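Entry 14. Structure prediction run on the chain below.
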Amino acid sequence: MKTPKVTTQTLAQATGLSLATVSRALAGSPQVLPGTRARVLEAAKALHFVRDRAAVRLKTGKTHVLAFLVNRSDANQPAFKDLMLGISDALQDTDYHLIVMPEGTDGNGMKALRYVVENKLADGVVITHTQPDDARVRYLQQAPLPFVTHGRTRITPEHAYVDFANERYAFDAVQALHAQGRRRLAILLPEAGGTFWTYLASGFSEACATLGLEGVVIQDMDLDQSPEKIYQWTRTHARSFDGLVLTREAPVIALTTAVLDAGLRLRQDLDLVVKYSSHLPRYVRQPLLGCFEDIYLTGTSLGTSLLHQMTAPGAAPQHILFQPPPIESLYEPDPR
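Output returned:
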């Protein structure tokens, strides 16, 4: 015997609410009290209610889909899945779902974004790898489509963003190296052009100037290169510095191996500070200094910020800037 289809009328009967209230609760309307919405969602879950999304879209023009546009280089980062899962988990117990769309192989982020907007594939967008004057942000401000960026820009009027205070991390990393007696420092950055790069370079340079240290922002190598290129560069140049600042953990194995192969000893000859978002550096059995960035929390914050725009479209854009925790020692070798 076929089980009768659960409809909004079924939920109205189960909850004792009007059909209009149930419909507004499922749509996430701010007119519905949180307790009432929770009551409807609980009944929907218990009764295995599934909305007819085609009908909803025809009626409201809403897809109830949010799009996460992914820079292709992120797929190689250890914590990428935490960012994606954080955004997705923020949508739990809502009527929104997440689609993940990698940008094209040509690196043209506008092409993927235009495809989403012009085909009305989503009600809101998350973009990453922001630039100081980001064409995608200017496009979305004119669309208009609710959006939030992972990273700041220099664009006004300001938009919603979630970011890590990378300038503070770089400053703190220099201070940590200075405390270890290091005087000849360098910072290895991702590919140039992003706001991420700018904040890291400025924080590093400011700290070196403040403390009277020699500091070099490396220009002929970036952390988006292959592990082999990073290994070869480090092995060639490691003796030029006694302190290095890394801004992501993906190349840490290649880099530490190159230092050892160059005949140097970490902690004795050279200190490394790495910003990390996965547990990888903790299993590199070398004495490293580190600063943890909670990428899962970043993801949930991106998701909740975008949802906030859906439920309060007239509210001021949210600016979430996480401050770095103190630099810590990730591994202390056995003194025996």
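The chain is about 40% helix and 15% strand.
Filed with the rest of this week's runs.
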